Amino acid sequence: MSENTSEILAGGAVLAVAAGFLFYAAQGTGLFAGATDNYDLRASFQSAEGITVGTDVRLAGVKVGTVSKIDLNPQTFYADATLTLREQVQIPDDSAALVSSEGLLGGNYIELRPGGSPDNLPAGAEIEDTQGSVSLIGLLMKFVGKSAEDAMAQ
């Protein structure tokens, strides 16, 4: 009977540790953040390549929110994104939202560049100044094409 008891205790300890890890991971991803702690802003991008639901929204390199929704606008053919930001982070109404990359092998994220206006964007407002993602392949093709034209001109 003591062998069964020790196995039950060991199994319970393993389950408790696993539950602790799950709780810690859920807190880190903002899963338990209350709806009152956040507010939404909208932004429309010509190209949102690499951006999905859950992508980080950063201000000065610090994560201040996530992308909570992204859809194609059938009238403008732009990607309409909903950005969920922490309530403590208030963005001036002349701010910009850019799709940025962490590097050649890193993922993309939304970078917020605050403007200088004394007025902040209210919840549900749209960030007008946006810049979509830049295709690395497209840039390389322009560079190669320009180099080939220069070589033929000589």
From TrEMBL:
Coiled-coil region: none
GO biological process, one term: phospholipid transport
Mce/MlaD domain sequence ranges: 38-115
InterPro entries per the UniProt record, alphabetical: ABC_MlaD (IPR030970), Mce/MlaD (IPR003399), MlaD_Phospholipid_Transporter (IPR052336)
Top-level lineage group: Bacteria
PANTHER family: INTERMEMBRANE PHOSPHOLIPID TRANSPORT SYSTEM BINDING PROTEIN MLAD (PTHR33371:SF4), INTERMEMBRANE PHOSPHOLIPID TRANSPORT SYSTEM BINDING PROTEIN MLAD-RELATED (PTHR33371)
NCBIfam families, sorted: OM_asym_MlaD
Protein name: Outer membrane lipid asymmetry maintenance protein MlaD
Organism field: Gemmobacter lanyuensis
